[in-house]
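Thread: Modeling a multi-component assembly for a lab meeting

Hi all, long-time lurker, first post. My supervisor asked me to bring a structural picture of a complex we are working on to next week's group meeting, and I have zero experience with this. I have the sequence lines for every component (238 residues in total). Could someone generate the structure of the whole assembly? Inputs are pasted exactly as I received them:
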Amino acid sequence: MKIDVFFTPATAEPKLLKNRTAVVIDVLRASSSIITALVNGAEEVIPAPSVPDAFKKLRAKKNKALLCGERGGHRVKGFHLGNSPLEFTPDTVAGRTLVMAATNGSVAVCRTKSAKPVYIASLLNIESVAEKLAAQKRDIAVICSGKEGRFSLEDSVCAGMLIFLIEKRKHRLELSDTAMAACSLYKDWLLDLEQMLTVAEHGRYLARVGHKKDLAACAHVNQYTIVPVLRKGSIVKE
Ligand code: MLT
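Re: Modeling a multi-component assembly
Sure thing. I ran the full set together rather than chain by chain. Output:
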């Protein structure tokens, strides 16, 4: 089994994802929010690559969905929710369809059309995702959402952790250079992943703009066991 890591969505060209299992990681905060929303009873999370597209998808759902997501880390004007996992409580999301327009995470998911299946991972469900990937036979493409087209420390460390956990279950993996680099990054930070979030660029930014609490919320390793999967354009509990 080959594992490749794409540190930004733009490097994950469709031809490189063909016939592979894909995993999209956006630790701060889209993957963490998607996982939390589905654990708390949301029916589905529909990724939207842009804000206008999110409103279009809401109309297609006859306005019966909740718009969530952010620009610059803040809730988009006219959206019901931002992108803090702490907003996706059972009272708010149980039984609801969500349409998510996050700056990087939604775009990353929308770029994985030629891969199948596509899973969503963050620190919150990393062990369950590793277990599922170790039990299947297809080559794996791990796609880091990054930050505005650039490398993000937290997504890359999480990608390394995923590979480290797969290696514990499955031997003779063939790792790309980026996969090996991600593993080395994880080994640098494994003793204090919350600290890693606080020093990462986007973690520092979120703390500056009033979302400091999200760092601890996104650092709860294996808080959940669900593995969200993309099905017909919508992210659901498998
Ligand atoms: C992302 O897409 O990278 C995140 O949504 C950014 C954020 O939640 O602040």
